[in-house]
Amino acid sequence: MKRLARIAMFIALFAVVGNLPAFAAFNETKFESLMQNCVKYLFVLEEDLPNGMSKELAYEGFEKTSAELQKYVSGLATRKELASARKTADNFIKKAGHEAVTLANVGKMALKMIAQREKFLEIHGE
Fold it and tell me: Does any domain span residue 60?
């Protein structure tokens, strides 16, 4: 009976931990994915090439994805996490290809978010 109770508690613990915010620690893949989603919509807004997505839909998508990126950055709580995010954003800017300008714009946007978060943490403590 005690063993069954322990197993149930163990499962409950995993359920609670599994439902914690995804932003509990910096995840480079997640952060880069959020930036890439912003690029997808911003590219449509910056270019005049029709690719099946209207400007209105692209604007709504960009607003949503940039809000998700801001939420992610707002969840970073330590200088180490912010430094990792800054490094990832800097590397994102350095990517090449036909979307290089758009990548740089999103990377710079992320860097501004990171700088704002750093200022917030300095004022309110880490």
Answer: yes
